[in-house]
Amino acid sequence: MKISTLKYFAVGAMVGFSLTSCEDFLDRPNEDSYNDGNYFQNDTQTKVSVNTLYNSPWYDFLSRGYYKIPEVMSGNLLMGGSSYANLNVNGSDEDIKSTSASLWAVNAQANTIYNRLKTANASASVKATAMGEALAWKAMAYFYLVRIFGEVPIVHDNSSEIAGGDYNNKYKVKSADLYEYIVMTLEKAIELLPESNDPGRIDRWAAKGLLAKVYLAKSGINAGGNGQRDAADLAKAAELAKDVIDNSGKALMPNYADIFKGENDLCAESLFGWRWTAEQNNYTCGNCLTSELGMSGFESYQCWGDWVAPSTDLQDAFGVSPLDNPTQRPASDTRRKATMMMAGDKYDYWWQDKNGFDYLKFLHDKEYAPGSNQGLQSGTGANIAKHLYGNTNDHIKTFGISSYKQCSSLSTHVLRLADVYLVYAEAVIGNNGSTTDASAIDAYYQVRHRAISSYERPAVITLDQVLKERRLELALEGDYWFDLVRMSYYDVQKAMDILNNQRRNGYYGLADLYKGYYDNNQWTVTEDMKYETDTPKPNVTEDVFTLPFPDEDVVYNPHLLEDAVNVDVRTEFAY
């Protein structure tokens, strides 16, 4: 059997190694190494057994698919020449291969850990909690799979399917049945999880929040493009989200930018999060995004994200432009600066050993930033601010250890409480264009008012307002493309229109504009400094909302080219 033929299955068999591959983000087991025979023998070992699902198997998705699919394809990031920017990804693409392999690895490890935990020698509560965490992460992996690839196989139990020799004979399952399988998995997770878990770990409220988001997506899956979503699914999404909002005891952090600082990695607003560590037991346990998205010279270790830029269209959504004089640029929405850095921006929580980070000084002062490229490289006049921890000194100050190339301890928030607030508002609006429901308005208002202190509570909110608010609140957090995918289920033309109407190109002359401002303190915009319209827009069709399987998967399992089958998942599978 070739490893490539067993991608859906074989990773789980290696779980004994995986469990020791990462420094635990909360508790590290005393053993330096162990195997299935001598582990799961007490509460500590049982609890730690789930730690791998918070980091390592997600690494290739983080480094390859996490921002290219949801952010580049959606028009939130400019990545010139990329097949993701052009919406023409094919099955030979290396990033789609890594994305697929990573998500199936999560599923395989979750299945294996869950089944092994059934016989763990641990207290009932600890065992149930660990099993619930494993199922919650499994549900998250499948939620990504169905929104990226559409119809995919169900691999419920890796060991039994390998033993049955059926690993290359899997059929795709209809998306509606996949969503029901995710619901079923999360229902079991909710049953097992406690209302309160250790900081940073999944609890019952986190699983309920994810289930609310799943129901919101599921509501449109059988709409057939008629614009109407299933009322029962919408009601369930609203019910679950409201339960989390009212009864979890969790609250939004007062200051938006604080969510993304390392000291708040385990904040209550982070319902699901990848908990990374820079400990060098295995580099896949560390967060690679500062290397991928930070500018050259931003960190002591190599970064190469100068040209991966927040898009013109995202700046439009925030109401700003790279041609704005920095002294006159609108600053009402605090999320803009926390999301992207623009001319004039300074950050006191980065480069603390240099009295803070100054964006323009970084671009133009080699003594201040000796490792930087000379001048602005971004085509949109902005660079990414989210997912950065600062320099090595900042990392040591926050986490007590050094960062490394493609390896930091900064968490990645996968599902935040603010997301659940906006899920609730959208679910209440449902098939209407707007709502005057007080609780839905309040949920929307709390999210927006945190970012814009002058914003007054409205008497009515519209669906388009909520969708835009989701884009701004969750920008560059791997979500916006999936909002469009969800929309494509029930109104594909609207989703296509959004993509077709975006400004996805960059500008001419921004490097000269920024250099002149830095040298002379004069903001002089000439007629040559303008938005570029020569690059054609991508070809947007209904097919763009489903990405292709990797070529090798299709070679080894030709059934993936056949029509998906219906599966009664609650009869076929059980936990």
Secondary-structure map:
Layout: H1 15-18, H2 43-48, H3 59-65, H4 68-72, E1 77-78, H5 94-117, H6 124-149, H7 158-163, H8 175-192, H9 204-218, H10 231-247, E2 270-274, H11 289-293, E3 309-310, H12 312-318, H13 334-339, E4 340-342, E5 346-347, E6 357-358, H14 359-364, E7 382-384, H15 392-399, E8 412-416, H16 417-429, E9 434-435, H17 438-451, E10 461-462, H18 463-473, H19 480-490, H20 492-500, H21 510-520, H22 551-556, H23 569-572
Antiparallel strand pairs: 1-3, 2-8, 4-7, 5-6, 9-10
Helix pairs in contact: 3-5, 5-6, 6-8, 8-9, 9-10, 9-16, 10-16, 16-17, 16-18, 19-20
Strand order of the largest sheet: 1-3
Q: Would you tell me the structural class of the helices and strands?
A: mainly alpha
Number of helices: 23
Give the strand content: under 5%
Shape: globular
How far apart the termini lie comes to 28 Å
Percent in helix? 40-55%
How many runs of DSSP E, i.e. beta strands?
Answer: 10
Radius of gyration equals 23 Å
The largest sheet is: 2 strands, antiparallel
If you had to describe this structure to a student in words, what would you say it looks like?
The chain is mostly helical and 575 residues long. The chain has 23 helices and ten strands. The strands form five sheets. It has a two-stranded antiparallel ribbon. It has a two-stranded antiparallel sheet with strand order 2-8. It is globular and about 70 Å long. It starts with 14 loop residues before the first helix and ends with a helix.
